[in-house]
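Hey, I'm writing a tutorial for new members on how sequence and structure tokens pair up, and I'd like a real worked example in the thread rather than a made-up one. If someone can provide the structure for the chain below, I'll link this post from the tutorial.
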Amino acid sequence: MRAVEIDGRGVMEAAMAHVVAGHPRCGVLHGHTVSLSMRIEADKLDSMGFVIDFTKVKPAMKGALAILDHQGLVVAGAMCEAVDTEGRILVHNEDEVYDLPGDEVVMLPIPAATAEALAAWAGTQIWKQIPDEDLERITYAEVTFWETPNTGATFVIRERRAEY
């Protein structure tokens, strides 16, 4: 078994805001500088001698972060209710209502605005962009969504084109 790791902490980052609905501390609008890391394993190397060429993975990681960068994350259909009113997004979260500019919001189909859900979302986004010839050799892959430089959640991808 061979493995590669791509650690984007401090190198590939995005600034995002979110609300973890119902959480006593994180249930208010707040932000993080987030990043991703990945571990990919394969039993066989490709014809160039790589587990996977980093140039096939890094753009997908950067693309997932670009979707979140300088955006307010809204969970579509979860505990928060988002309503588009004249280009504005009203996020209803228990007793709070946040009025956000629509062009500064990304709505994701995830169950909650947690690092765990975002790791699964990012892993799925990245996995869809890995070429088929590499997917056939990959025996294990995981992505970690880092909310801080030392706090993150990991999503393990075990099957080809895993869907969240």
